[in-house]
Amino acid sequence: MHLTRSTDGTHGNVADRFPLPTGKYWGPLEGPRNSWSNRFGTEPPSSKDGLRRWQSTLGIARTGVYDAATRTAAIALQRAEGWPVSGHIHAREWYAVITGGWRLPVPPRPATPGARKITDATGPGRTDRFGMAATDLGVMTRTPSGRILAVFGDTFRDPVVGGGDWRSPVALYSDTTDLDEGIVWHEAAGPDPDHARQLWAYDHGANTTMLPSDVITLGDDIYLHVMVNEGLGNVVRTQIWRSADDGRTWHPTEAIFEADLHDGFAQLWTWARDDDGWVYIYSTGFQRDRGIILRRVREERITDPDAYIGWGWRDGRWAWGNPPTPVLEREPSAERFGEMCLRKIQNTWVLVSFDASTAGGYDIDVRLFAAPTDNLYLVPKTTPLRGSAWGAEGNDRIAQLYGPSIIPGSTLHGGLHLLVSQWNTAVGWPYRAMHFKVPAR
Fold first, then answer.
1. pLDDT digit string (tens) for 82-109?
2. Structural domain spans, the chain
3. Which CATH topology does 116-438 take?
4. What's the distance, Cα to Cα, between the start and end of the chain in Å?
5. At 164, phi and psi to the nearest 5?
6. Which residues of the chain have pLDDT under 50?
C-alpha cells in the first residue's frame, strides 16, 4: 500500500502516525520536559518502539534511545531538507523517514572489476548509414531465423536529440557471431534495409512517442511491448505489437494496458520465457520512482490482458493470484528502478537493471537467481557499471547511463554483453547506445 501525506501532516495509516504526544519530541536527556530521550525511565513503551522503528528504517542501531547516531541521522535529514538543524526528531522528521522515503546517503558501491567498453553501438560511423545517428535503448531478442534484432527508441537523423526525422520505434538486425569484436548492424527492419523506418505509422502530435520496453520471441512470432508517451515519462497506456515475419512488419494486438494498472507499476516491462511455457514479467513505472512487481502469463495467452497473474503478499504469505506487491522497493537493494532486462541464460535467471535510487544508486546492477519468485533482496548481486560525471568516464564508469539490455549470445562463464544507453541531457549529444562486456558473477 502506498500512502501519501496530506498537507496538514495527517496520514491514512494509523500505524504510521507520529507516536509521541503533541508537543513532545525525541531529544537529549538533559533537554526540557518535552524532550524524550527514552533514558529517563518513565517514557511509555510506544516511545521506544517508535524510535526503534525510525532508527531501523534508516539502517542505524535499533537502540530505542536518543543517542549520538540518532542525533547525527536527524541532523543529516534536517540539512538535506533545509530545515533548522537541532538533531531532534519531531513529527516532521518522523514522517520524512516513515512515509516520505528519506534515507541516509550511503557510500557508492565499488564497480565490479573486469567491465570494459567494447565499442559505440550507435552514432556517427556506426548507424548513421541507416539514418539514425542519434538513438537510444536497443532491446534485443534472437529472431525465429536466428538473427539478433534490436529495437530502439526515439531516433533522429543527425547526431543530436531533435536532429530531424524523428522516429520510434526503429529496429536493426545483426548477424554478429563474435561479440567480443563488437556488435555490427547489417540491415534495418521494415521495408527498406538501408534506412531504419519507424516500425508502424502514428501521429507524433502532443509529443507522442512509442518507446520499447522489451521484446521476446515465442515460437515463430516476436512480441514487442511499448509505452505510449505524451511527453517523455507521461505514459498514457502500454500495448503489445506482434511480428510474424522475423521483425520486418508489425501489427497491433488486443493487449492494451492502462497506464495506472497496478498503481503505475506496470508501465516499463522486461520479460522472459521459462521452459514450462510461462512468461515472467518484472515491471515498474517509467518515472524512476518505484520498485518492481512480478507477474506471469502463459505464452499462448500473451496478448490477453486478463490472463496475467500477479505475485503478491497476502495473509502472511506470497502466492500467485494475489494482486502484485513490490518484490524490490527498498534498501539495501534499491528502491527506484529504470530500464531492466530479464533473461534465462544457461538455466540461470539474470536480471540487469538501472538502479535510479537517490542513495547508493545511479548504476547498473546484475542479479542471478534460480527462479523469478526468489527473494531478490537475498540473491547474488554485482554492480559492474556505475554512473560518473562527464569527463570522468572509464571502462566501468558512464556519465548519464541508463537502459541496459542483454545482447543475445551472452554467457555466464564468458561474460554478459550489454547495450547501455547514454544521453547528455544538457546538450543533446551523446545520445547513443554503447556495447559493454561485464562479468556475470
1. 999 999 999 999 999 998 888 887 655 5
2. 14-98, 116-438
3. Tachylectin-2; Chain A (2.115.10)
4. 34
5. 85, 150
6. 1-11
